[in-house]
Amino acid sequence: MTVAIEMVSDPVCPWCWLGLRRIQAAIAQTPDIKVQLLFRPYELDPTIPAAGVDYKEYMGSRVSSPEGKERMAAMRQALIDYGAAEDIPYRFDAVTHRPNSFDAHRLVRWAQGQGKGAEAKEALFRAYFNEARNIGDHGVLVDIARSIDLDADIVADLLKTGADTDIVRQEADTFRQMGISGVPTYIANRRVAVQGAESAEKLERFIRHAAAQLPQERPAG
Prior knowledge:
This is Putative frnE protein. It comes from Hyphomonas hirschiana VP5. The protein is α+β, with helices and mostly antiparallel strands. The protein has one domain (2-212): Glutaredoxin (3-Layer(aba) Sandwich), CATH 3.40.30.10. The chain is built from 9 helices and 6 strands. It has helices at residues 14-28, 55-62, 66-85, 102-113, 117-129, 138-147, 152-161, 165-177, 200-212; strands spanning 2-9, 34-41, 53-54, 97-98, 185-188, 192-195. The strands form 2 sheets. Strands 2-1-5-6 form a 4-stranded mixed beta sheet. Strands 3-4 form a two-stranded antiparallel sheet. It is globular.
């Protein structure tokens, strides 16, 4: 039997990059369990316009008090420190644009259909948090598709036509209706869940707990 883990995340969520690395490490630590890692869409702020907004202005509107700014600075430093341990090169100081991430989720869906979901997520995180690229821009998304060996021409056409827009939006809405209010969230076999970029050790225990809930296969004969 397979443990199907759905990672609900957003490519503009810095904790989700950390969460991706940690769930991958946890899976590597459970070679005795067959795990299928699937990526599901979640928009931290679906009100962001399609063209995106200025990053500093956006963050300033959300965190205006001195205390809030101090907490934000502390959180970023914690992420930089955690990232260093996971070989994640965050460069928050370079980010100038807060994109709408919806089309990036569409790219992940297409990549996942080709067995490249994790590669797409990693490439999107790196493009945004390290290279400060606008991952809401179709040209950037096509470049990312090309970098993971997807057919760039097909991806460009799909982006233009609005393919899978309704499906991705419905999926994202479904997880909100399930009560998910923060990411990353991991759901195992739609039965047990854990929220947050937990350590690989905790996620390993989560996987083993989920595996223990699966019905036991009966021997043939």
